[in-house]
Amino acid sequence: MKTDWKNLYKIKLASFIPEMDKHDVIKLLLVRKILQKYKRRSWIRIYTEFELENSLRPDIYFENIKDKSVVIYEIQKNYTEEWLKEKTKQYSNYKVPFFNSVDFIPINLNLFSNDIREISKKLEEYVF
Q1: Stated pTM of the model
Q2: Whether the Cβ atoms of residue 72 and residue 91 lie closer than 8 Å to each other
Q3: Of 32, 55, 57, 52, nearest in space to 99 by CA
Q4: Contact by Cβ (8 Å): 104, 74
Q5: Closest by CA position to 49, among listed 18, 86, 14
Q6: For the segment 18-37, what is each residue's pLDDT rounded down to a tens digit?
Q7: Hey, what CATH class is 13-126 in?
Q8: Do residues 78 and 86 make contact, with C-beta atoms less than 8 angstroms apart?
Q9: Distances from the Cα of 42 to the Cα of 9, 38, 63, 94, angstroms
Q10: Coil, strand, or helix at residue 33?
Q11: Which of 29, 49, 55, 92 sees the fewest Cβ atoms within 10 Å?
């Protein structure tokens, strides 16, 4: 994968419809949580709505260059077992050159309240 320096740390919105507001707030807060945890930005890369080689477009794609790991986050409102199986299969086959691991973290949008403080607190569970 080639580093896209122009879009590094930019928050891209998937859609502008009002139903996606909560999705976009969670995406923004999760990126902020990652940036707060990994203060040395020269060791990380974060992309949102970034198209991968296998034509997948995860909500957040995070590379930790220091420990050579990739974390892919998918935020989903219609979270079902079928969706989870499909995405897990797609990302389990995904390999990133020069990185040791690729982890897929699904996020069920329905588990979050509408209170931004509660959302922020709950998102801490998803940042390792």
Answers
A1: 0.86
A2: yes
A3: 52
A4: yes
A5: 14
A6: 777 888 899 999 999 999 99
A7: alpha beta
A8: no
A9: 12, 10, 11, 24
A10: helix
A11: 55
Contact between residue 45 and residue 65 where contact means Cβ atoms under 8 Å apart: yes
Cβ(63)–Cβ(70) below 8 Å: yes
57: tokens are: 């477009």
DSSP tag of 91 = H
Q: Show the tokens assigned to 95.
A: 């390999």
Neighbours of 125 (CB within 10 A): 10
SS3 content of the chain, % helix, strand, coil (to 5): 40, 20, 40
pLDDT in tens, 50-98: 888 888 899 999 999 999 999 999 999 989 999 999 999 999 888 999 9
